[in-house]
Write a structure and sequence with these properties.
Elements (H helix, E strand, L loop, with lengths): L1 H67 L2 H24 L17 H21 L3 H23 L5 H32 L1 H30 L1
Amino acid sequence: MADLVKTNARRDGEDRFQALEQEAFISNSSSELQNELVSDAGDGIEAIANRLSKWIVAALFGSVLLLRHDGAALWAVIGSVSNSVLSVALKRILNQERPVATLRSDPGMPSSHAQSISFISVFSVFSVMEWLGTNVLSLFLSGFILALGSYFTWLRVSQKLHTTSQVVVGAIVGSVYSTLWYVTWNSLVLEAFTSTFSVQIALFLVAAASALGFAVYVLLNWFKDDR
């Protein structure tokens, strides 16, 4: 009888231990699954934000150009397109691979997204400061524009489309190019534009051709990348 009681007690202990092991396994599996789902959801949100970034930035740039509707807006269109051409040229010269070459086949240095976003962000900030002067509202809008541009730029790294150095170089080149382009307008082009009709016509034609070329590029590339 004593042996039977010991045997039953031992079996009960083993059953309880197995039950605890199963409960712990299920709890850990559930926790890991939950963490994976949260991680996948986060990656999905960032991937969506990355795909939408070019459309949002283009809409911001278009809004600024429509609000300006002046010679500087035409000059900005030419600058934006020439900045993109410069990025393509630098990529071919530097010919540095992306962190994951299978995601994109073209070189990654510098990041064309970072360069374009930085050009547009800096030009938009200059326009805001020109319209509103230096006050709380203009500083808030400028900070928001730069923060949004920085976030969209960082997404290129988080999505493993570029290295940090490729994005940093693209941001620097785009910011410097935008600053020089804006300064050139105010110091050299503006006076000629306001005083000479032929310069106005020439600037309009070049800007229209640049905008048309950009529209064709969007139709051929942006929609394809979103699929």
